[in-house]
Design a protein that fits this description.
This protein has about 130 residues and is mostly helical. The protein contains 2 helices and no strands.
Amino acid sequence: MRIEDYEPYPDDGMGWGDYPKIKPIHNEDRDPHADWDFIQERRNWGEPLHIEDDTLSAQRPNYLKKHPKTMKYMVTALGGVLTAIGFLFYLGHKFKNFRPVSPKQYPYNNLWIENGGNPDNTPEIKHYEI
């Protein structure tokens, strides 16, 4: 760093002292095809680091990048998706859909005698219709 480019942080009580004030540039915004000494971090040996370099590394989201969509569009899209999901839940609650089930069939006339029925008066139960 040249002396002409050196500008320290102001003494506002944060304790950063005379560390150089560097413009924040995220690692994703740097040229990926340049001849870097540290390719993963996209920086050269001896290059001063920003005071918040941990937030500007490639492993962190790029908070300096402008989003391609506006916040109004993103909130509207999220609201639309949640409304559609809620509407589908409402339809599923209103129009219930179950697998068709017939009554349980037991042998021996639906266990007539086992359930306490009179063996002399056994009804004939048909589980089919022709």
